[in-house]
Amino acid sequence: MIIRIEPDSDIPIYIQLTNQIIEGIAKGDLKPGEFLPSVRAFAADLGVNMHTVNKSYHELEKKGIIEIVPKSGAVIKRHSHIDQEAYERLYQMLKPQIAEGLVLGIEKEELVDLIEKIINEMKKNS
């Protein structure tokens, strides 16, 4: 999996990293049970501060996507279904994005097509 950091982006680097790791898991590039690189090694590979990678890993842990195992590293968790807390978090994140689309004139069918397109992009490799 290739991580592309855009230092000039308005999106903080730790969020860029977090989002790309999530996308890599969704696409099947990273599998449940696999360990992510150590914070130090990943930071060196990406040319970013260790605290940036650490913050990303903790964000992923907070979302329930990885588990940080002391002295072993960060492992991608297995999921068979979404729990209510994660469902509600996703609902709250998606709601303003969908509202923005509606305000900008996207029709319900176009929105559904857009979501299906994104899902298909994620699932094409897995």
Automatic annotation (TrEMBL):
The keyword Transcription regulation applies. InterPro entries: Tscrpt_reg_HTH_GntR (IPR000524), WH-like_DNA-bd_sf (IPR036388), WH_DNA-bd_sf (IPR036390). Residues 11-79 form the HTH gntR-type domain. GO terms for molecular function: DNA binding; DNA-binding transcription factor activity. Keywords: DNA-binding, Transcription, Transcription regulation. The keyword Transcription applies. PANTHER family: GNTR-FAMILY TRANSCRIPTIONAL REGULATOR (PTHR38445:SF12), HTH-TYPE TRANSCRIPTIONAL REPRESSOR YTRA (PTHR38445). This is GntR family transcriptional regulator. It comes from Ureibacillus thermosphaericus.
